[in-house]
Structure formats: C-alpha cells, structure tokens
C-alpha cells in the first residue's frame, strides 16, 4: 500500500477550534492517544466531550459515529454527560436529531484481565454495526486504574505487567487499524521523586519535566507503557493568584486555576501547548 | 592466473609451457587448430584444453555471482565495492558525519531510543531521502516502510516530503548553473507513492511479512531501504517460550541481513528501550535482550542531553564511537541549532 492512499487522514475534532489547532486537527484515527493528568485536571471532561463530537458529520469535524466508553472509575459521570449533551444539542440543533447520550455506550472494566477478556466482545460489538451509528471512538478512562491493585513492586510482577501493556495496546491498535477507530486512553500521574534529571537521565518527550499543581509529576505505568501509545498529551493545572479581594473582614486571595494542554510526544505534531478552561458547556481552548 | 594452475594433466601443462603459452591471456585468442599444430596434439584435445582455460578465465572475473560460491571475495574487492556504495543521508550533517556519510547499504542498522525522541521522524526522513534523485547525489530508490506501532502519520510524511522537494530543487538549480540539465519536477505526492507502506498488527504477521519481503523486493528491484518501526512492539507481549522468541528474532535478523546483501539495500530497524536491573541499579538499555544485540551490524542510540536530541554510535565494526546532536524540525531531521560543540568523539 502507498501512503498516499491514506490521505486525507481523518481526525476527530476536540470541539473547539483553538484546541484543534494545537492538535493539528484533533485526535487522529487509526491511532492510540493518551491523555495524562492528575485528578481533576479535566481528563474525563475531554473524553465526554469527544464522545459527543464524534457524532457530528465529517464535514463538521466529527466521525458520524457512536462511541464506546470503558470506565474503570466509579461511578460513570452520567449527570455531567447529560449536561454536556443538552448544551451540545442546543448548539448543534440542526445536526443532531436524537438524544446525543443515546449514542454513547458505556461499559465498566474492573482490571486488566477483565479488559482482555472482553476484548473479543468489543470487537464483535464494533464489527456488528448493530448500533445506530458505527462505533468509531473507544475511550478507556483510565488505563492506570486497571493496574492499580493486582501488581506488586517486584521484578516478576512488573514484568508480567509490562507484557499486559503490550498485549492490550497491540489489541487496541489492531482494532483502531481495522475499523478506523480513534482510541483515547487516560492515564494518571505519580509524583516524581529523585534526581533533577529524570530516572537515570531518562526523559520522555518534548518537556524536560512535567509540573502540575506545583508538583513535579510523571505519567503512571512507566517506560514500557509509554512505548505503547502513539501520542501523549499532558493536562496540567496550576493555581495562580490573580489579585486580592478585600471585603473588610478578611483578606481573601482571589485564586484562579490555569489549565494547560501540552503535546508531550506525537508522531505528527511539533511540541506545542495551549491553555484551556472548563465551563458548564464543556472544554474550550483559550488564546493567550 | 597462470597456465600451471589450470586443472589439466601434467603432460598437457608441460606441453603448453614448453610451447610458450604461460598465461591465460596468451590462450584467449588462439584457435584450436593453431594450438593443436603448436603442441602437436590432436585438435579435439586442444579444443578441450581451451575450454578448460576459458573456465579458468571466468573464475577470475569478480563481478560474476558464481564467485561467492566458487571462491571467496578478497578484502580488496570488498573495499573497492564499499567505496562505491552510496549512502542514504539523514538530512542532518552532524549525524551523517558520525555515521560515515549516512546509512550504509548492505548493512543492518538498529536505532533505539525513548518514546518521543524522534525515531519515527528519522524513519520517515530516511524513507524520503532514499528517493533523492541520482543527479543530486542520492540513490533514486524506493522505500519499504513496515509500521508495527501505527505511528506513521501520512500528513507528517507529506510535510517532510514537501520540505525535501524544496531542498532538492534548489540543489539542482545550483547544478543547473553549470550544466543545462533538464529538471524533472517532483511532486511531494510522488514521493509518497514511492513508499511501500505495510501496517503490521501481530507478531505472526510480522514474521510472515519478513518472509515475503524477498519476493516483494525481487519484484520491486528499486527498493533501496527497508525500515521497520519498530521491530520490538509485538515481541514484548507475553511469549510462552522465550527461547522461541529469541530464535524467531534471530531468524528475522538473518533474513534481513541476507536481504540487504542480496539486493544491495539498507535495512534500518527501530527498537525501544527498557530499564535493565544490573547489580541493584537501574539502567536504560535497548529492548529484546542480549542475544538480539548481536543481530545488527550497527547500533545507534538516541537520547536526550538536556533539551537537545543526541545520537550515539553504540556498536559498529567500522565507525568510532561518537555522538552528535540533531533536531526535529517541521521539515524533518536537521542539524541542531545550538552553539555547543556538536560532535563528540568518545
């Protein structure tokens, strides 16, 4: 096959032109994209938004597709999804006819072996086309939670764990390739301890270090997993004091959270970053 | 070669030498009847002797493929051959310098590094650079790109191709000032059409493809580079039998090496890194273990040095260990912009 047959490649819009510009058009299909962030940075918000925008026709940056949402953290944020889909529906009234959240399929996953077990089922589901719209987006929120309990910190367990990484990622990429899916997984962070210069001089990606909430962090699951994803995006938040509010009784510091999206590595993107805000209507990039 | 070493009987050799035929060259232009008269032997015997002499001549010509079967190549021949071999540039002058001019044909080069260091970028760059037209000092070949990880992005390949086309045309314009060579316009999409892309999703597929490559390349002789990005991915899953894994990998490396020799093409293999626990401390090393590290001719490791990407020759039979910095730009791999000393010899 010649690469020119693959042109133009499809992207799934993030739902905001600023974010899309930062990501060269959105989340690429046939590819595995990872969102890394500590909790409450907006990983799930991004994922929920993607499941809605996937339903738009390709002319509007979507995939005309439904999505499969595998969640490992309980409970699934149904209420937030309903909120988002209401505002999504009102802003795209002419394009979306049914209830948007009817095209989001949700499944719970408990651990890594469970995920491997249901993988054939997932493939059947994607292939069957029984859904109103074909499934073109798979979200796993979050991959790190699958490996949280079972594996100890000894060489044998770590080895078993990294085999599982490659197996899971191989299967996800196979699905992505076969059915033209966009696959998005979220990952957690762990606090970074030790030398200034990475783990024995190791550094992954464009940024020499990742900071969130004033702490230095690095993505969970280690080096082996970072080989398993095609692109890695990092979300961070930092509190910033924007001014003082004096209401007479107390000196209150007025705080503002600044959120950032960074491209850690991606085969098709230069190092770039973008600030974003989370509002009632969803996630939006900010030009600064 | 002398007549004395021809596989003839001693009396025949004696007759030849005493009649003054000491070298093969002296036998090359004589007719059997003349030889029969000179040696005073029957014409049929002279005819047989000439036939043997002709065979002896054939052995001496080094470009005959039978030479490898019948006798070894001399080191001198190999050296001459190697000097003529073109190399595939990486588009980064410093990197080319430590590689001895670029990626060598007929060799297997392994390149490893952490995620995001630019392995895939280098792969795409090489797939484009192998197509540099012969007038611009390139190979004018085609590329086979085997993608096991799904990281090959077409938009990115197009971007690099576009930048390269601009470079080539400005280069050939420079050439044109001297000679009025007609210039063939190359479109970036033509470059993409000369990359044969295979997307591999399992280890079985990978082995099958490597086995099929021989046939594929024999049908597409102008393929000058085979890129595997990466060899590792499907082999880091749980294999029940690790000895089997190593045998499979070894076999694969051997096939690639033969492919390189047979069709005179470069093989570039990308590898991942892993942490290796030695004597209690963790160190980064390339994946797939020790037995794999013997499989490649050259080994290059890419690593971060501060904010700079660096490449280091880890293993090579002909190159000295050295490191050089490079950078990944929108147009592809280029020289690093920093003012540091760019090449370090270890």
Automatic annotation (TrEMBL), chain A:
Which parts of the sequence belong to the RecA family profile domain? 8-189
| CDD domains attached to this UniProt entry | XRCC3
Give the molecular function GO annotations: ATP binding; ATP diphosphatase activity; ATP-dependent DNA damage sensor activity; four-way junction DNA binding
Principal localization reads nucleus
Keyword annotations for this protein?
Answer: ATP-binding, DNA damage, DNA repair, Hydrolase, Nucleotide-binding, Nucleus
What EC designation does it have? 3.6.1.8
Any one GO biological process: meiotic cell cycle
Top-rank lineage group of the source organism: Eukaryota
Q: What class of enzyme is it?
A: hydrolase
Give Gene Ontology CC terms.
Rad51C-XRCC3 complex; replication fork
InterPro entries found in the cross-reference section: DNA_recomb/repair_RecA-like, P-loop_NTPase, Rad51_C, RecA_ATP-bd, XRCC3-like_C
Compartments, record wording: Nucleus
> Under which name does UniProt file this protein?
Putative ATP diphosphatase
* Native source organism of the sequence: Rosa chinensis
UniProtKB/TrEMBL annotation, chain B:
One GO molecular function term of this record is:
crossover junction DNA endonuclease activity
**GO cellular component assignments:** Rad51B-Rad51C-Rad51D-XRCC2 complex; Rad51C-XRCC3 complex; replication fork
UniProt KW DNA-binding keyword: yes
Family annotation (InterPro entries): DNA_recomb/repair_RecA-like (IPR016467), HR_Repair_Mediator (IPR052093), P-loop_NTPase (IPR027417), Rad51_C (IPR013632), RecA_ATP-bd (IPR020588)
Keywords of the record: ATP-binding, DNA damage, DNA recombination, DNA repair, DNA-binding, Hydrolase, Nucleotide-binding, Nucleus
Task: Please report the stretch or stretches of sequence annotated as the RecA family profile domain.
Answer: 84-273
Q: Where in the cell is it found?
A: Nucleus
Say if the entry is tagged with keyword Flavoprotein: no
**Where is this chain primarily localised?**
nucleus
Gene Ontology biological-process annotations: meiotic DNA recombinase assembly; reciprocal meiotic recombination
Pfam families named in the record: Rad51 (PF08423)
PROSITE patterns in the cross-refs: RECA_2
Indicate the family of this protein. Answer: Belongs to the RecA family. RAD51 subfamily.
Role this protein plays: Involved in the homologous recombination repair (HRR) pathway of double-stranded DNA breaks arising during DNA replication or induced by DNA-damaging agents.
Name of the molecule in the record: DNA repair protein RAD51 homolog 3
Origin organism is: Rosa chinensis (China rose)
């Amino acid at each position: 096959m010649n690469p020119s047959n693959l042109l133009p490649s499809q992207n799934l819009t993030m739902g905001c032109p600023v974010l899309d510009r930062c990501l060269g058009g959105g989340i690429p299909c046939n590819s595995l994209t990872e969102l890394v962030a500590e909790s409450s940075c907006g990983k799930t918000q991004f994922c929920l938004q993607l499941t809605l925008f996937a339903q738009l026709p390709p002319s509007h940056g979507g995939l005309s597709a439904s999505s499969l949402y595998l969640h490992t953290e309980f409970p699934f944020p149904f209420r937030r999804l309903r909120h988002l889909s209401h505002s999504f529906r009102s802003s795209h009234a002419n394009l979306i006819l049914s209830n948007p959240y009817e095209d989001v399929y949700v499944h719970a996953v408990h651990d890594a072996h469970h995920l491997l077990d249901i993988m054939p089922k997932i493939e059947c589901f994607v292939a069957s086309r029984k859904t109103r719209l074909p499934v073109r987006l798979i979200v796993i929120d979050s991959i790190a939670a699958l490996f949280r309990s079972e594996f100890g910190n000894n060489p044998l367990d770590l080895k078993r764990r990294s085999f599982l990484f490659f197996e899971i990622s191989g299967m996800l990429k196979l699905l992505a390739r076969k059915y033209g899916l966009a696959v998005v997984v979220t990952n957690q962070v762990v606090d970074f301890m030790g030398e200034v210069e990475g783990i024995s001089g190791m550094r992954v990606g464009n940024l020499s270090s990742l900071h969130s909430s004033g702490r230095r962090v690095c993505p969970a699951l280690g080096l082996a997993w970072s080989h398993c994803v095609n692109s890695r995006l990092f979300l961070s938040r930092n509190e910033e004091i924007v001014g003082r509010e004096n209401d007479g009784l107390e000196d209150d510091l007025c705080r503002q959270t600044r959120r950032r999206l960074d491209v850690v590595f991606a085969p098709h993107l230069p190092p770039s970053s973008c600030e974003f805000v989370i509002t009632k209507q969803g996630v939006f990039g900010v030009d600064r | 070669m002398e007549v004395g070493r021809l596989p003839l009987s001693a009396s025949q050799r004696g007759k030849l030498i005493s009649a003054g035929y000491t070298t093969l060259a002296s036998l090359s232009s004589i007719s059997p009847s003349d030889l029969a008269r000179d040696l005073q032997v029957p014409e049929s015997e002279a005819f047989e002797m000439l036939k043997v002499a002709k065979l002896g001549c054939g052995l001496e010509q080094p470009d005959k493929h039978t030479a490898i079967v019948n006798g070894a190549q001399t080191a001198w021949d190999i050296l001459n051959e190697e000097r003529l071999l073109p190399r595939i540039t990486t588009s980064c002058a410093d990197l080319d310098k430590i590689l001895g001019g670029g990626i060598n044909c007929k060799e297997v080069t392994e390149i490893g590094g952490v995620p995001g260091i630019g392995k895939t970028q280098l792969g795409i760059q090489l797939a484009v650079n192998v197509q540099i037209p012969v007038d611009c000092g390139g190979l004018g070949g085609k590329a086979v790109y085997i993608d096991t990880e799904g990281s090959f992005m077409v938009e990115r390949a197009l971007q690099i191709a576009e930048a390269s086309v601009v470079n080539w045309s400005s280069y050939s314009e420079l050439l044109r000032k001297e000679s009025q060579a007609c210039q063939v316009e190359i479109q970036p999409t033509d470059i993409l059409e000369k990359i044969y892309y295979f997307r591999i999703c399992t280890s079985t597929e990978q082995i099958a493809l490597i086995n099929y490559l021989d046939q594929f390349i024999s049908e597409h002789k102008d393929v000058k580079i085979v890129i595997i990005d990466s060899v590792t991915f499907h082999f880091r899953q749980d294999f029940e039998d690790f000895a089997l894994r190593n045998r499979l990998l070894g076999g694969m490396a051997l096939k690639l090496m033969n492919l390189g020799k047979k069709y005179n093409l470069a093989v570039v293999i990308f590898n991942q890194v892993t942490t290796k626990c030695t004597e209690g401390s963790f160190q980064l090393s390339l994946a797939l273990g020790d037995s794999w590290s013997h499989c490649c001719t050259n080994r290059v490791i890419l690593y971060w040095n501060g904010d700079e990407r660096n490449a280091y020759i880890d293993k090579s039979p002909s190159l000295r260990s050295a490191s050089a910095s490079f950078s990944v730009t929108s147009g592809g791999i280029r020289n690093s912009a920093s003012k540091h000393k760019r090449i370090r010899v270890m």
